[in-house]
Protein: Adenylosuccinate synthetase
Amino acid sequence: MKKAQIVIGLGFGDEGKGITTDFLASQNPEAVVIRFSGGQQAAHTVMIDDTKHVHSSFASGSLRGLPSYFTEHCTIHPVFLLNEREELKTKNGNIELHIHPLAKVTTPFDVWQNRTNARNLEHGTCGKGVGATMKRHESPYKLFAIDLIAPREMLMEKLKGIAYYYGFADEKEVNELLQPFLEAIDSIDWKINDYTWLTSFDHLIFEGSQGILLDMDHGVFPNVTYAYTTSKNACEICKLLKIEDIEMYYVTRSYTTRHGNGWMSNEKEMNLKNNEEETCTFNEYQKELRTGEIDYNLLNYALKLDGAYVFPAKKNLVITCLDQIDEKFKVEKLDVEFDAIYGSYSPYSKDFKQIL
Structure:
């Protein structure tokens, strides 16, 4: 029987979905890892021995040797993808990446929009063009993964239309922005495959992005992401592939974090320990990583909310960064019953322990 494991963040992102996915990949070396939301803005950090990698355009099983699949709900940026592919090669990671034909493509014009638009900066952005890409796809000016292998003349007409959509009128400027983008497209052997490709695997690991509290339907607007960050997309794909054996891995740090603007409960500066490997540091678009005490009411909200999308399923809880604060995580404050609870210590530790 085919099995699916779905990794979901319970907060505002940065919970430890990458190391949880890596843990599952280490237990299931014949699996495929599927990204079902978000895109190149992910910073899912995995450390294996002395090798560290920040996964964005590849799923977090690639360092373990597993192939990656990006669904139609994801975005891709050819330049970012190419750069990460070259980095993964030096680390002997698996660079096999299959992409759904309807995955959305981020262009240089989308990145420009994310980094210069005042409203984007106010609402919060990673500066990788994901939000602008999703917003543009509400207009007629769309660009999908399948277009990357279309005749070049057709691709260029679509790119010119996107440049026009953003108000670019200088042909020289447009060509300069497109040159590295087109070179990246030509440097990649694109594997564009629909969900039929996944049927050859008996074990599927679904790697979520961001967290439930940033979901476009359930987060506090306007500081949300343009994605469904619950298990909604993953469960729909499981139904399509007729997978009934589903296991959930809900991930939270032992404290709360939020990278970027927006509402956050229990916010305060935490005296954290053993966080020298923290990847989520200051950047000019998201600013500082904000912290706060764990909010059990919000965790219960997120858990019950996701239960509306997945049923039945085995439920596991993963608590990361257990060694970074003095206070013990109080599992008894959660209303949901779990089949197992796992703990992880330093932010990118492979040392997962079943603690209940």
Notes: The chain has two domains: 3-101+192-354, 107-187.
